[in-house]
Amino acid sequence: MRFSMRTKLITGYGCLDQLGEAVRSFGVKKVMLCTDSFLAQTPAAAAIQTQLAGAGVSCEVYTQLQPEPIDVDCDRGAAFCKEQGVELIVALGGGSVMDQSKAMAAIVTNGKSCRELDDVPIPKRMLPLICVPTTAGTGSEVTFVSVITNTQDQYKMTIMDADSLSPDVAVCDPALLTTLPPKLVASCGVDALTHAIEAYTSAVANPISSALALQAMEMIAQNLKRCWETPSDREAQSAMMLASTMAGAAFINSDVGAVHAVAETVGVAYHIPHGVANSLFLPYVMEFNRAGNEAYYARIAHRLGAAEPGAGDGENAKRSIRFVEELIAQLKIPAFASFPQVDPADFEALAARAAKSPMSLDNRKPIETEDYVRILRDAYQSKKIYR
Q1: Mean pLDDT across the chain
Q2: Please, are residues 110 and 124 in contact by the beta-carbon 8 Å criterion?
Q3: d(CA 97, CA 161)
Q4: Would you give the DSSP letter of residue 175?
C-alpha cells in the first residue's frame, strides 16, 4: 500500500492571514497570484497582495483562465511565469484555478508543453505552489493531479505525479466560502461527496483512503445542505471545507470510478461544469454498482445517516442511493436534459469514450459501453431510482 500526503495544511477561520508567512518561508522574491478575473477583484485577492507586499515579495496577478482549464492556456501561463521570473505560484480559486496552476508550475520546471506531460512521470518538481481554495468541492489543494482539456483531441488529460505535483501548502480558510452562490455550493458539495463515495468504493481503495472517505461522507451529509441554506453558518462551512480536503486526499490515494469517467467525457463534449456533471450521474452509477456490493453501500448509508436500524445490507444499500438522489433534488442541481446542447444521438459515442477511460478500470464493478449508454439515458430521462 502507498499513501502520499506531501501538502502542509493550514486550516481554520481567518487562516488566510497566515499566507504571507507561508510564502516568506520559501525565501522567494517574485510570486504569481493565479486566479480568475472575478476573484481578482475580491477582498481575498487584495489581502493576499497586501500580505505579499508586507513580506517584501512582488506579485504578478494572472487571470488568463477558462472555467475548465485547457492546454494552450497552461502553456501561455507557463511562458508568462518564465518571462516574469516567477519563483512561486499562489492559486486562489476552485479546482480549475488550482489544476491550471499545477500544470503551469510543472511546465516551467520541466521545459515541456502541457500535452507532453499527459499521463507520464514528471521528472522535475514543479515550482513551489500554495493553494487557497475558494470552494468546498474538488480537494485539488491536496491532490497531485491536474486535469486539463486537450483542445486538439478533445479529451481531459491527466497530469499526475505524487512527488512532483503535490502542492506545497494548502491554506483552507472557510471564510472564503461564505460568498459562494448557492448553485456553486450545491455542485461543489456533491463533487466532494462523489470523491468520497468513489474513493471508498474504488477497486483500489486502501484502509487510510477509506477512513478519510467515510468521515468526509458523514461531514458532507451533515453540513452541505446547511451551507446551501445558510452561507453564514461558520460551523457548517468549516466542516465542508475540511471534508472536501479529506475527500481529495482519499481519492488521490485510491481512485475515482465510473461517475468521473462519464462526467469528464460529458463535460468536455457539452461544456458542463465538472461538479454539475458528477451530480448528474452519481445516483445512477451507485445503482449500477450496488448489486453484489451491498455491504459497501450499506456502510455508506450509515455514514450518510440514511440507514434503517435493523435493516439488512440490501435495504440500506438502496437507502444510500435514495439519500443521494433526494439530496441532489433538494439542492436544485439542473437536470441533464435541461442543457440544450445535450443530444441523445451522441450517447453511444460518449459511452464508448467513457468505457475506455482508465477510471473505468478501477470502478468497483466492471462496466462496459452498453452500461454507460443506459446510465446516460436514465440520467437524460431523470429516471427515479428509489423515490
Answers
A1: 96
A2: yes
A3: 18
A4: G
Phi-psi region of 61 (alpha: psi -120 to 50; beta: other; left: phi over 0): beta
Q: Are strands 145-150 and 88-93 parallel, antiparallel or unpaired?
A: unpaired
Give, to the nearest 10 degrees, the angle between helix 347-355 and helix 369-380: 130
pLDDT band at 387 (very low <50, low <70, confident <90, very high): low
Find, among 277, 333, 324, 282, the residue nearest to 300 by Cα. Answer: 324
Strand partners, 70: 149
Tens of pLDDT, residue by residue over 147-174, are 999 999 988 899 999 999 999 999 999 9
d(CA 199, CA 186) in angstroms, rounded, equals 20
CB burial readout 262-298, b (16+ within 10 A) else e: bbbbbbbbbebbbbbbbbbbbbbbbbbbbeeebebbb
Residues 190 and 187: their CA atoms lie apart, in Å, by: 5
Domains of the chain, start order: 8-177 (3.40.50.1970), 182-380 (1.20.1090.10)
From residue 348, alpha-carbon distances to 49, 340, 345, 373 in Å are 49, 18, 7, 6
Structure-block grid coordinates of residue 114: 502541457
Question: What angle, 0 to 180 degrees and rounded to 10, lies between the N-to-C axes of helices 258-270 and 182-201?
Answer: 140
3-class DSSP state for residue 159?
A: strand
CB 242 within 8 A of CB 219: yes
pTM for this predicted structure: 0.95
- In sign, the C-alpha dihedral spanning 309, 196, 278, 291 is negative
- Identify each DSSP E strand in 230-363 by its residue range: none
Query: What is the helix (H) or strand (E) element at residue 145, kind and residue range?
Result: strand 145-150
- Cα-atom radius of gyration of the chain, to the nearest Å? 20
Amino acid at 327: L
